Write a sequence for this structure.
């Protein structure tokens, strides 16, 4: 198991004092007033600085020749998110949800495509999937169609292996899958505090991975799954954000090739289990600069009133 404390979060907070500085330039104050205001502002400045500090993502990853090789890391990520919640509508507020694809009905599995909203409408787990490609597909169960995407190319069952038997998942016509979070069973956008994916057959480093985005669609960082040589291998990548539920979207890149008849080039990658924190509604938090701006505006107003009195 590999544990990392990342530092590649995108800065999302603007400088706290930019509006306040503009206000002071407009309403100059005396030295005595400045000293008084500085004492008042100091505590607020500390709060502003604390709000601007970026929490670090906690990354868990592992790769191995079989499910047992990554099981401990997967379980550690599960534990960090909390207990597994039922697949019902509404938010539990904490805990986690999972998708292992195995309960998908045959009519929504290969050779048929999976509706992107299946795991928010049909089986409410607060996730909607999309791709810039031609569709999404879950592999078939034995006896229905060739397993492990053998319906696309007969060689694929020798390349891929499930983590939790027996279905797998892939985007079609693209190596990109976008995951958006919702309050399960609703159209209300939600946030999660962590997201992880089990990948199958990651051969090349620094290609397969996940990029996270906040509610403003600003990147929270990109992380990569570990690679391992050979076929029918498994890799896991899970990222949890210690500051809480901040992720509105996750973009998964699975390899650099797309599944297609006759294509066995490196690096073809498919997915199995999705594991993520319970989707919750965004919290409304005022900008740190708002309080400072109000405080300085009041001080400036007092200064203007005193100036007018001295003139009269």
């Amino acid at each position: 198991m590999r544990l990392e404390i990342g530092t590649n979060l995108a800065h999302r907070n603007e400088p706290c004092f930019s509006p306040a500085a503009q206000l002071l330039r407009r309403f100059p104050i005396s030295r005595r007033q400045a000293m008084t205001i500085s004492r008042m502002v100091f505590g607020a400045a500390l709060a502003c600085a604390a709000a601007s500090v970026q929490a670090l993502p906690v990354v868990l990853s592992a790769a191995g020749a079989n499910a047992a090789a990554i099981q401990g890391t997967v379980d550690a990520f599960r534990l960090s998110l909390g207990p597994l919640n039922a697949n019902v509508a509404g938010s539990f507020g904490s805990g986690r949800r999972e998708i292992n694809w195995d309960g998908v009905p045959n009519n929504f599995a290969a050779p048929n495509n999976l509706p992107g909203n299946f795991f928010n409408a049909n089986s409410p787990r607060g996730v909607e999937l999309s791709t810039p490609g031609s569709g999404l597909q879950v592999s078939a169960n034995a006896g229905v169609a060739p397993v492990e995407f053998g319906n696309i190319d007969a060689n694929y069952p020798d390349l891929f292996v499930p983590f939790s038997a027996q279905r797998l998942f892939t985007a079609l016509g693209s190596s990109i899958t976008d995951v958006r979070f919702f309050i399960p069973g609703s159209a209300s956008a939600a946030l999660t505090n962590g997201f992880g994916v089990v990948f199958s057959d990651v051969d090349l480093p620094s290609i397969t991975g996940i990029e996270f985005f906040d509610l403003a669609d600003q990147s929270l960082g990109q992380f990569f799954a570990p690679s391992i040589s050979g076929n029918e291998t498994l890799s896991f990548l899970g990222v949890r954000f210690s500051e809480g539920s901040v992720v509105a979207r996750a973009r998964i890149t699975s390899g650099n090739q797309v599944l297609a008849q006759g294509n066995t080039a490196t690096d073809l990658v498919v997915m199995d289990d999705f594991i993520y924190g319970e989707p919750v509604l965004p919290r409304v938090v005022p900008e740190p600069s708002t309080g400072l701006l109000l405080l300085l505006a009041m001080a400036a107003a007092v200064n203007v009133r005193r100036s007018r009195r001295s003139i009269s």
Observations:
- Confidence is low (pLDDT under 50) at residues 7-21, 44-53.
- The longest helix spans residues 288-311.
- The domain at 57-277 is CATH 2.60.120 (Jelly Rolls).
- The chain has one domain: 57-277.
